[in-house]
C-alpha cells in the first residue's frame, strides 16, 4: 500500500472532526487544514461538503465491526453479543466523547442534507440486514423471544442501540450501553 | 394570560428552529428576527445562545406528554402506551421532519455545550423516572418480562425511543415508531 492520497487524508480528517463535533460545527477549511492539504484545494477533490460527508460515512461504516456479524459459522446470539462488545470497547476507548457517526449525522442532517440522509439510510439498512440474519438463525434455535418478527426486531435493536449511544454521549458513562446489553440479552434473546 | 413577552417569543422561535434544523445550522440573528424582535436585542434577554437553548429544551420538555405518564390512577401499561401514541401522533403531524428536541440537541451538543448537555440529562432523567414508576407498577401486576429491573428497563426504553425517532427522521416514515411499539409491547410489557 502506498501513502494515503490527499483525498483520503481529507476524508479521514472529515470523519474525525464530524465524529467529535458534528457537521455544522466545523468548516471545510478546518478539515482541509487538519488533513495537511493546501487551503483552497478542497474543490479539486470534492463536489461539496455534503459529498465529503457521504464518503466519511461510508468509510466509517467499514469500521463498525460488521465482519463479526457476517461470520455465519458462529453462534448467532454470540456473534450479536461480540459485535456489541466490540462497539462498547471503542466507545469506552473514546471516553464517551464520540458516539456513532452514522447516527449523529443522520440526526443532524436528515432534514437538510439529502445525500447524507441517503448514505445514513444505506448504512443503517446494511447493518440491520446482518442483525436480521442472526436473529433468523436465533429464532430457528428457539432463542428469539416468541412472537417477535426477526426483521422488525432487527430494526428495533439497531435503533435502540443508536438511542443507547446517544444517551451515553449525554451521561458520559457506559450505563446506557450496559442497559442495552442487559435488557436485550434477557428479554429479546436468550 | 397577557401577550407573550419578547423573551418568550424568542424562546418559542429558538425551539422551532432548533427542532427543525438543529443548533449549529441556525444563528441567533435568524431566531431573533423570526421572533419579530429587534436585531441586536438578543443579549438584553439571554446570556448566550446556549442559555437560550437550555430554555428551549425546558419549554419543549413541558410538551412531551409527561402528564399522561403521571396519572397514577390509570393502568400502568396503558398509560405507557398512550404516552407513546401521543408522541407518535405529533411526529406524524410534522411529517417526520422533526424528531425529539431533547435527543437531537443532546446528540449534537453533548461534547461542546455543557449547559445544554446538563439540560438534556435532566429532561431525560425526569422522563425516565416516570417510565420507571409505571414499570414498577406493571411489575407488581406481573406484566413486566421476568428478570428485568424497572430502573434499567426504563432507561433502556427511553433510549430505544430516542433511537426510533432518530431512524424515523432518516427514513421519513413511521416504521421505526411501529417497530418500537410492537417489540416493546410484545417482549418487555404484556
Automatic annotation (TrEMBL), chains A, B:
Q: Provide the HTH tetR-type domain boundaries.
A: 4-64
Q: Which residues bind DNA?
A: 27-46
Note the InterPro entries from the entry.
Answer: Homeodomain-like_sf, HTH_TetR, Tet_transcr_reg_TetR-rel_C_sf, TetR_C
UniProt keyword annotations, A-Z = DNA-binding, Transcription, Transcription regulation
Q: Which Pfam families match?
A: TetR_C_13, TetR_N
Q: Name one GO molecular function term.
A: DNA binding
The record's section on PROSITE patterns has: HTH_TETR_2
Descriptive protein name: TetR family transcriptional regulator
